[in-house]
């Protein structure tokens, strides 16, 4: 499998290293920033470029891992290639790739990638989609190289997955950050909260979150809810978040 | 160490089993519900009672693990005992125990306990407080029996800890539940979201949450934020949660 990687960020890096480790041949890394392309090219034993005219036209797959709003312009540069053009975005429809390459597909990893932290790629669910059954087989085979968890998901479902991931990952991380700030403002160490955060996430690995809800809101413990609102009087923003989420929990658990 | 356990719920069960395992002598379990007291008494090799007149007055510690609003009435029944009376609540001040036993303290485990899931008790942070340095030593020694993570925390700080735990645990679990419902309503399996949830919690074990925030809001990706709001048009509640948390993330990462 010959791959060209378009992009040099966290997703491009994690995916191309995983493909490389499974024996794929990374031909090139393209990035607007040729220095960053150079770093990933060195890591994957490939060539770096920021010049579209230098793109190898004979790869099997062109993996686009750039910001969502750059996908259309990148795809437009890949009209003439022989392989299949694949993006990795949660929200972007497959149709944005129409007319590029010999076909198009999506390979969306439902995971959060950081520069500093290794991810166990075999545990990552990959959502795949393509413009034909044959190309879906190809994208599925590509994803299966690095993870056993490959799911065919259409563009509409993928948007829902991305949205649910925002709730379960981006918003939860922000709530961790609010916890961190509450502690630090009161001379307490965020270390104290870390085991609780981990246990909360581990608990829903074998249970449904709606069935293991704890806290004052699910108990309709108005006295504690009131005391917490008083502690938050200094921040209209956090107070509002507290109220809305508590009311939503109470509504879900009447 | 001779203990009497007041309560028979999740916290009472996890703590008394941990103390028993570390060699403490559980004399009695008191519960309003004598059947539940009987189950925990059988597990800890102790006697069950729902009758205050039968309480052993010569234990070293009386550990209260009942609902917050029942602590005062329970403490009133423990005026005449010889040992120290300790509650395990995050929000209740130490002062509610004044006049009970030969002294009073708090031993608050900063963790979420479920009936169905074992907790690695040695990883749980215990917040301790007492009415005198001598009693603080005693409560610290008691907590240290089962966990190396024991922190002296006063009543005001403990309230903040409990509040931050609501944000980082109860609210995040509710956001998991919203993700679960979004998926299920669209024919998708919650399994797909589980690895992301775990990774999000694991990431902040070594990083500060504010430093590893991801998602459309932190990138100020207005196009995706707008698309997500459209997907949520059917639910005023989730739409409001999405907007408030996204705005809070944008404000924290300008």
TrEMBL record, chains A, B:
Q: Which InterPro entries match?
A: 6-PGluconate_DH-like_C_sf, DUF2520, NAD(P)-bd_dom_sf, P5C_Rdtase_cat_N, TM1727-like_C_sf
Q: What is the name of this protein?
A: Oxidoreductase
Annotated ranges, domain DUF2520:
124-248
Q: Name one Pfam family in it.
A: DUF2520
Specify the superkingdom. Answer: Bacteria
- Pyrroline-5-carboxylate reductase catalytic N-terminal domain: from which residue to which, for each copy? 4-86
